[in-house]
Amino acid sequence: MQVTMCPERATMEHVTSRWGVLVLQALSDGEAWRFSELRRELQLASEKMLTQTLRTLERDGFVHREVHPVIPPHVDYTLTPLGKGAAGHLVALASWIGANQAEVTQAQESYDGS
Question: Boundaries of each HTH hxlR-type domain copy (predicted)?
Answer without folding.
Answer: 6-105
